[in-house]
Input
Amino acid sequence: MAISRASDSSIQDGLPKYNDIWDGTTATSAFDSLGSVLLGTATSTITFSNIPGTYTHLQIRCLTRGTTGSTCPVYLRVNSDSGTNYSTHQILGNGSTAYADGHANASYILDGWGGFQSFSGDDLANTFGIGIIDIFDYANTSKFKTARALWGRDNNASSGVTGRVVFESGAWRNTNAITTLTFTTDATTYGINWAAGTQIDLYGVK
Output
């Protein structure tokens, strides 16, 4: 079925007029920026708080690199909840090998394994990992919260840790609306921070 352009003037007088009819020219954004963090110095934690509950979904876009050491997860926790009421699973490929992994009763909704670039001897200089995370029905108080993510990194076939792509999903077994998102490298375990230039942006999806 073809979609025709419509305008108020093309609708017959006396019939209802609806403001949500597309006029063929006006562009409206489905995304609103809710916050952006661009690091000038290294840190291990980035938090978005006071997230309004007026959107349908949330999207997070990540550009990440570590300061030292090996590849490290990008943990995502919700509402400062560090309990074991999360679960996550993923599939990963590095150009020659594919495998799947999962974690029940975890302390994070996503771990971003493979989307994180670090300043180790195996990683190319000036390269960053990327990720896009979608969190669905984040303000709905009648269901648990679910998220999906796509992560990627590339080392140009460098030795050691290769480039990889990861598709991941997770759940937070809680019906509370999401008001805070915290991203951490778990520096206590891995001894690694995010490097300057790391950027994480949060968007509300209408």
Notes: Residues 187-190 form the longest helix (4 residues). Confidence is low (pLDDT under 50) at residues 3-8. The longest strand covers residues 98-106.
